[in-house]
Amino acid sequence: MNGAEILTVAQMTGADRAAVASGTPGAELMERAGAAVADAVAARFSPRRTVVLAGPGNNGGDGYVAARLLRERGWEVRVEALAAPQSGDAAAAAARWPGETGALGERTPRGDLVIDALFGAGLDRPLGAALARLARSLDRSGERVVAIDTPSGLAGDTGRPLGAASFRADLTVTFHRRKIAHVLQPGRALCGEVVVADIGLGQSEASLFENTPDLWLARYPWPGVAAYKQTRGRLIVVSGEAWNTGAARLAARAALRVGGGLVTLLSPPEALMVNAAHLEAVMLRPFETELELETAASNVEAAVIGPAAGVTEATLSNVLALARTGAALVVDADALSVFRDEPEELFQILDRDDVLTPHVGEFERVFPGLLENTPERITAARAAAARAQAVLLLKGPDTVIAAADGRAAVNLNGTPWLATAGSGDVLAGLIGGLIAQGMESFEAACAGAWIHAACADDFGIGLISEDLPGLVPRVLKQLRARVA
Hints:
19 strands, ten-stranded mixed sheet, 2 domains, Rossmann fold, alpha/beta, seven-stranded parallel sheet, 17 helices, UDP-N-acetylmuramoyl-L-alanine:D-glutamate ligase
């Protein structure tokens, strides 16, 4: 896969050690890291009084380098050290710092900008009481904070504060690759803007990626010149009862907009006229029994079931019927909740082409206790995908997509404008539409999540779910321009 990896603390430590073993001195890596911090700060702020809070390890060493280089650019810089450097490279960096160094106290540092170079992603214990008070004081003061690697007090492998407090940054400069703390909440919010600086480390081996177009765009199913509607994929969406039809129509319209060639809404007879009054390009077909549904799905590539389907025996029977066909399933909302008492019954009928799209509540119904008993949602999503032997998309501000083979991606373009009724139904349709066109299910889920968020971000304030399908063509046009 071609996306940027997201690394654990251990993987990042391994990358550092490999670079040193291959001949790059640790002091040189520290100089590059400090220079990257100075460059990022200078690019975003005008020269101002700056205080660097330096810890005793290599994170503090990076801070000493950044302080020296900013001072050389004419900045007024002071270093406040928590303790004397404990590593040779950090001690050497401190020795090259020509400016003033004071002892870090409990008072809020007096400066217009604070650079947090206390502890990086590898911290494994809570901040001491004095530093916790300092973190809270800085947060209240409104001073601008730049963190090196991660805000101090934040666990690099979970994105959660290790104790009662963590520093909060406006800008975080990290090195080589993002870490889990940069992509999962609340760490993502505590990091502010994240800059990933290249300091010359080699390629990393990882199975966790940033969900950006680089991950899947090369395999996006653009139609060829000879394409016609049947070759662009056939998809069905199962409608709810007469008073619950809008969600399925949102999914169907999204599937069409993302390129699905033939999209059919399968409707209970009593909902037929309601659906007919709102559909044009989406085709409509009635069904009464699970056998009729199975027959209708026998010659399609993908099927979406769950949006406003109802948590009923009929929905359960309909999922089982679809599973007997060759269609790849996108199982959403009520079609997940209906298995809350017998989740294993769902897992037994799934295969690796199927996609489950729960929000946290639905995830808990199908995988009870899993989120609570894992360190963070990436681990939980991977475990759920392995248990279900299907693709799992765990929705949220830090949406995680996981495959049964261990691959996982975290969506980085999430936006609060998606917090509106029906947006998840659109996402299910986008994924189903991409799978119907032949996109591999994990990549289709990744692409669907990214496109979904890009559409919402493009619209912004006032977005409602009905807006989303109509925004898809603009986003696709921009993606197409990247590969033209």
